[in-house]
Amino acid sequence: MPVVTFANTKGGAGKTTAVLLIATELARMGLRIAVLDADPQHWISRWHQQLGPNCPERLQVVPYVSAASLEREIKRYQHVVDLVVVDLPGHRSPLIAQALGYSNYVLIPAQGSAMDAQGAANVIDLLYYLQDKTGIRVPHSVVLTRINPIITTRALQGVKALMAEKRVHLLATPIVERAAFRDVFSCGETLYTMDPRHVSNLDRAQENAQMLGREVMERLMRFCTIGAAAVSEPQTVRMVA
Ligand SMILES: Nc1ncnc2c1ncn2[C@@H]1O[C@H](COP(=O)(O)OP(=O)(O)OP(=O)(O)O)[C@@H](O)[C@H]1O
Ligand SMILES: [Mg+2]
To answer: Which CDD domains does this UniProt record tie to the protein (predicted)?
Structure first.
């Protein structure tokens, strides 16, 4: 089953938040997901533990994944879920190249800043290096994170221009800066267990996450055969490119 890795060598780019939002949406669509938590901060594992029985049924989190255990965990979960998702550390580490090598699709979260764009470019360079060495091209996209829904900054325009120049695919749906996307971690909640009276613009956050989930699913279906997704039957997911 496909492996989707979230990577950016710049810390704090929004990887773990993107993993949580996208994995939750894909699980809500019916895919069985295993998130391998290789982020040394273990936010996803903590979130999952806090969430307890409120966690979407089809979503499981594998804590404390390291360079030594990554291959074993990918092989173990590839056979029991529809999608393996890997959350990586936010610094250069041998784990990044290792995870990219197992990936069928890579998502590169980046805020609208030159530093995040550089972190994204590092991942893209690694993907080209892998392609040179193995002949395998791993499809990848940048997803913009923490975007202000009202103002387009020069820095953000710069990131978009850089990605266009490098011919890197950019997801049409950015992840907007929302209190709800922070609160899911601090409260151990999902966007669907939170109380809308206590979280501003929760409905907009849900809409944003759902649009993103749909777009990522469409991208996955471009590169993978996803059989009867979003149904409760066991599903077939096969890579075709
Ligand atoms: N869309 C968003 N709206 C509001 N806050 C966000 C959003 N995305 C990320 N954040 C906040 O930004 C910070 C960094 O986000 P996150 O932990 O997801 O990044 P990361 O790339 O996984 O970091 P690291 O490299 O340290 O693993 C966190 O405090 C998170 O709550
Ligand atoms: Mg992280």
So the answer is: ParAB_family (cd02042)
Q: Which residues contact 156 (CB under 8 A, 6 or more apart)?
A: 112, 144, 147
Those residues with Cβ within 8 angstroms of residue 47's Cβ, 6 or more apart along the chain or in another chain: 20, 61, 184, 185, 188
Give the angle subtended at the CA of 1 by the CAs of 128 and 100, to the nearest 5°: 25
* Partners of 34 in beta bridges: 60, 84
Q: Is 40 in the pocket of ligand 1 (CB under 6 A)?
A: no
Q: How many domains in the chain?
A: 1
CA dihedral 122, 125, 131, 132 (to 10 degrees): -130
Mutate to test the pocket of ligand 1, among 10, 45, 146 (most ligand atoms within 8 A of CB): 146
Span 153-211, pLDDT tens digits: 888 888 888 888 889 999 999 999 999 999 999 989 999 999 999 999 999 999 999 99
Most informative mutation of 6, 17, 142 for ligand 1 (most atoms within 8 A of CB): 17
Its domain, for residue 206, covers 3-239
